[in-house]
Amino acid sequence: MALRLAEGTAWSDTLARAVAAAPEAFGAPADGVTTLHNLVEGDWRAVGTPTPVRTPLDNTVLVNLSRLGAEDARAAVAYAAAAHRDWADTPLAQRKERVVAALDALTAHRDLLALLLVWEIGKPWRLACADVDRALDGVRWYVGEIDRMLAGGREPLPGPVSNIASWNYPMSVLVHAELVQLLAGNAVIAKTPSQGGAVCLTVAHALMRRAGLPATLVSGGGEELSEVLVRAPEIGAVAFVGGRSNGGKVAAALLDTDKRHFIEQEGLNAWGIWNFSQWDLLAGHLKKGFEYGKQRCTAYPRFVVQRDLVDQFLDMYLPVVRSVRFGHPLAVEDGWSAADPLPDLDFGPLISPAKADELRRKVDEAVRGGAVPLHRGKLDGAPFLPGQDTSAYVAPAVLLAPPGRSRLMHAEPFGPVDTIVVVDTTDELLAQMNASNGALVASLACDDEELAGKLAVDLQAFKVGINKPRSRGDREEPFGGRGASWKGAFVGGELLVQAVTQGGDERLYGNFPDYSRYPAT
């Protein structure tokens, strides 16, 4: 049966709702394409070079993103620094009122923000809603806790916080962090991710600005803007979420400065299987792990399995992989109505056709090098629209024993591709789980939880789950990484507020050039 786009979800309808919600942030269409403004110097301005942004859903153009040059970015930073000084002197009670006003406005547009995420970064509806809800619910928790977190004389930083984040969690990571930084007394600057989320962030920042929050939103390439957004003397702190290549460049640019920073980078998060028998429990965790096509820094793409358990592991695991549902998040059958739920998929497309091609090449490279393909899914039969461009979609794949020289052996694939490594001893288990020089999370599946706890001590991961996955966490949970996966201050709960304020004990939790200090997790 041919599928069709769910009524009311077409991009033209979605964009019209966005423009109606924040008309000041959008330019008049040129050649049929709307251009986004930048939020600089306290206002939405038509500055920058328009560049088309495509949706991963079907590779069509959504909007034009106005990319700023370095000079415009410098002016934006200078203005933000002046706004920061005024905001830092604003009483906490007033800051809370304005943040709550912004939250109320964002909540009123919750469904629009979620639908924008479906179109812009390919999240299925359920996961898009979860991203928005986590941001709003999380910041409301901070509003209730901020007084105790600032007790003891903690003050805002000397300048605004510069936020450079990847595209995969625009609301629950980027906007969430900004609102907490604002609550703590800092003006904020955010760089729009080049690959996706621009319209959602534009609407969100328009609502934040209307609430009187000193927020700046700029678009542009990393090469042009990094020098300004990272090294400008006015910047009080740099928050980065992304890959190790770009994260390493940011860290290198900060070496000769004393700027506060928190640089979150992906690691090859591993799940070890040793002396284990609770396969039904593990199956539920692994199915959920495929959400958003594993395009997140806390995904588990590596399984390190005791040789004697490989057959039992595969008996459980391969049916899980084959049950994963992916396709166009808004494709429905005839008879669907607006009262019906949108498709409940595990994932849609990857963020772009280029990333999909890159992942397919990595799989082919590993197989040519000797990896055993245990499963290679097909796009055939997945829910797509008639004639739809599917170049950004990748079906799940599972490879056994990727060769040591392959990229999949040492780097996170950032997509629905898993690798399995077989080991014979606990020493080999630990060595393979620590293969990437540090990770954000890890997990051990082991019936003997006392043994698992002993093994966990030697894992190079910030959080370790015993018979369950570990995630970034919300509210009070601290978050960071070990090894190369994290540089600078840790965040989450009280640690996030400490990272964006000063005073009291300045020996923060985190990974710094001269020390590392870890909280209980």
TrEMBL record:
Keywords: Oxidoreductase. It comes from the Bacteria. Residues 51-495 form the Aldehyde dehydrogenase domain. It comes from Micromonospora globbae. This is Aldehyde dehydrogenase family protein. InterPro entries: Ald_DH/histidinol_DH (IPR016161), Ald_DH_C (IPR016163), Ald_DH_N (IPR016162), Aldehyde_DH_dom (IPR015590). Gene3D superfamilies: Aldehyde Dehydrogenase, Chain A, domain 1, Aldehyde Dehydrogenase, Chain A, domain 2. GO terms for molecular function: oxidoreductase activity, acting on the aldehyde or oxo group of donors, NAD or NADP as acceptor.
